[in-house]
């Protein structure tokens, strides 16, 4: 934070303590490649980092990527005990023994340049081809295949303790819980993607900051697809001076799994994500629970009905204006824009749904016959390839179903 923009005293010692907390995520070689076990010894290394190391390796709750207990977007790959809250589903690729760097390849700088972007095309060629020819060609795979997220559901900066000393900008972010389903928005190039959305505020701001309408992408040219909606500054009696408020909007990519239903997007013009959270920071208040909704429609994006669902017992020195400014700021968490999903033609939708169900039933029957032939040692590789292509088309490009199923039935 720029010192000129705040109206709270911040000493050099406090600034250093705050910066150390921010720098915890910066890693070295051992964080990725150090893999000690009882069998291999205390100094064992692995050439390919296991996925567990990408989420801290169980050695800390403050390092590395989404899925660990101190990460905000909450799109856990490993899920289960690595998700927050614990018990969220693991990505479907975990069972296939794929590790993070199998998909997130290294750039010219080696492991220090692991690519953020990954493509499904290397393994799922049939699906990518079907998608490219379908009405969903401008839809990211994760838009349908990610159905639940964890991580932060609220973030508030205010006075508290950092490194055992008072600091005006303690981060209260341990509002953890599931958000289901992700909200779909268009990225900088008009492609639909799933996002995690939650409210943020920071007190102690000196100047008055005006709101901006709609979303602002942090990287307009698409290096990343994270965005925010700046809501401006607000104040209330007894509060921590001006509060700068914004809505965080971040792209998510895990946990990939079985697709959400077509109706979950196309049965209504309004998107609604239900959120439940539990606050359990070591400062401010004893653990308590709460909930909210994220609503996206043709009129804008709105985080509404934020409320505590259990009693709030303050700790010594705890003040809601510091760790729960949302209780005082009220219904401010909204921005303008069209976030509605285009409604499908109901007649075409019913026809496609019927054709898809028909095709999948026929494909299941063909699959059983192919398995029987494979068990006998018969060479059906070409037919199996055609079956995969047809299966991909059945759920990703329904317009080509009948013809492809007919051709497959004829060839076999």
Main attributes of the structure:
12 helices, 7-stranded mixed β-sheet, globular, 6-stranded antiparallel β-sheet, alpha+beta, 412 residues
SS strand fraction: 15-25%
Principal-axis shape = globular
What is the first-to-last residue Cα distance?
66 Å
Overall pLDDT metric: 85
Q: Which stretches of 5+ consecutive residues score pLDDT under 50?
A: 66-70
Number of strands: 15
User: What is the helix tally?
Assistant: 12
- List the secondary-structure elements in sequence, H or E: HHHHEEHHEEEEEEEEEHEEEHHEHHH
Coarse structural class: alpha+beta
Helix content: 25-40%
If you compute it from the alpha carbons, what radius of gyration comes out, rounded to the nearest whole angstrom?
24 Å
Biggest sheet character: 7 strands, mixed
Write structural notes for this entry.
The chain is of the alpha+beta class and 412 residues long. Helices cover 26% and strands 23% of the residues. It has helices at 12-22, 29-33, 51-54, 100-103, 125-132, 141-145, 263-266, 320-323, 326-329, 346-375, 381-396, 401-411, and strands at 106-107, 110-114, 155-162, 165-172, 175-176, 179-180, 183-186, 192-205, 216-217, 227-234, 242-251, 271-279, 288-297, 300-308, 334-335. Strands 3, 4, 7, 8, 9, 10 and 11 form a seven-stranded mixed β-sheet that branches. It is globular, with a radius of gyration of 24 Å.
Write a compact overview of the structure shown.
This protein is an alpha+beta fold and 412 residues long. The protein is 26% helix and 23% strand. The strands form three sheets. Strands 3, 4, 7, 8, 9, 10 and 11 form a seven-stranded mixed β-sheet that branches.
